[in-house]
Amino acid sequence: xxxxxxxxxxxxxxxxxxxxxxxxxxxxxxxxxxxxxxxxxxxxxxxxxxxxxxxxxxxxxxxxxxxxxxxxxxxxxxxxxxxxxxxxxxxxxxxxxxxxxxxxxxxxxxxxxxxxxxxxxxxxxxxxxxxxxxxxxxxxxxxxxxxxxxxxxxxxxxxxxxxxxxxxxxxxxxxxxxxxxxxxxxxxxxxxxxxxxxxxxxxxxxxxxxxxxxxxxxxxxxxxxxxxxxxxxxxxxxxxxxxxxxxxxxxxxxxxxxxxxxxxxxxxxxxxxxxxxxxxxxxxxxxxxxxxxxxxxxxxxxxxxxxxxxxxxxxxxxxxxxxxxxxxxxxxxxxxxxxxxxxxxxxxxxxxxxxxxxxxxxxxxxxxxxxxxxxxxxxxxxxxxxxxxxxxxxxxxxxxxxxxxxxxxxxxxxxxxxxxxxxxxxxxxxxxxxxxxxxxxxxxxxxxxxxxxxxxxxxxxxxxxx
Length: 466
What we know:
- The chain is built from 17 helices and 3 strands.
- It has helices at 4-20, 42-53, 60-72, 74-97, 100-131, 150-164, 172-185, 211-221, 236-243, 247-267, 276-312, 314-325, 350-369, 384-392, 399-403, 412-450, 456-465; strands at 187-189, 331-334, 348-349.
- Strands 1-2-3 form a 3-stranded antiparallel β-sheet.
């Protein structure tokens, strides 16, 4: 055990250290008091405890390992505290006071609660997010950058519809430019700093960006104005179309076709030559296989390109933020056509909106306007019907396909909403379902042992009432 002299000496050293840190009088007055470090801190008690008990005696190594796990990982801390503070003590109390069956029921209930509350939702979410990388699940090859919050995505979609209805917007490039100008010109500071007399000269537009600044920032996003960096809003589809022609991807497509031919010939007895009917059937099969392999390679390339762009975009976004910060404050909202704040969005951060605007252009608007073969965004006449289908159409035939299940014929908006709900809600629903199932199983086991419809706690209460 720790001796009284050791503890007294350690505390005296600590007090002396605090006294040396006390401030001195200035101009006959003491400075304002500032909170100091407690005399007996947890780290001090922990060191004294290790000194007295010893780091290698009894349960001390297990205690140290548990404390290290709690400090290093929040999930481990939650599990250890739940098992050590709830599961084991309650099970031991039930076993000592009420018997083995109530203890078993308590242990099962508490352990399943720990698993479902701590692990299950995260595991299922990880599985769903991993499955989202597969082409069969994520037919549109949408990156997680496309997961813009619903309020912002809806607002951007409404602006696209509004701009497309303007009579002067007749080409693809004019749509892109007018969309960016509209978004930037509708950003308005919320903290009233631009209206203060002493700061009014810094914000000539009263907390709004103004048409000239919005046009210049839109030019930077579209790459029409030199920013000093090669980054801008990229046309990912063009980069994918260029990469798919590289030899390694063409060879992968050819290998898939050769493997399919071997399987096709093997099903027909391994004949070296095919009859006319078999040749026609193979041509249809080869076209389908080649198309699937081509789409699979495009899916893979697009996921790589979006990850590469995300790593390289920091300089561009920092420069755009510094430019916008010259006329806006950090806290702002997006106003609608009536010049009133959009109620659903609330107050947003300037950097966040600039970043999401770039993501919306790359993952939604540019994809909808690009040529599906070459990936080019040419300054051609705007097909408003095609734009609406590529963005907002709902694929599928049944109600479930149109509203719940992501479908290859969905527009980008519909596919993003369905995928988000699928990945977020599915783990939650499965977790709740498994938790309810465990309750039913536990109740069934209890009734099987006790022959009653009640839980052990309810039986004990009935015994007391008698």
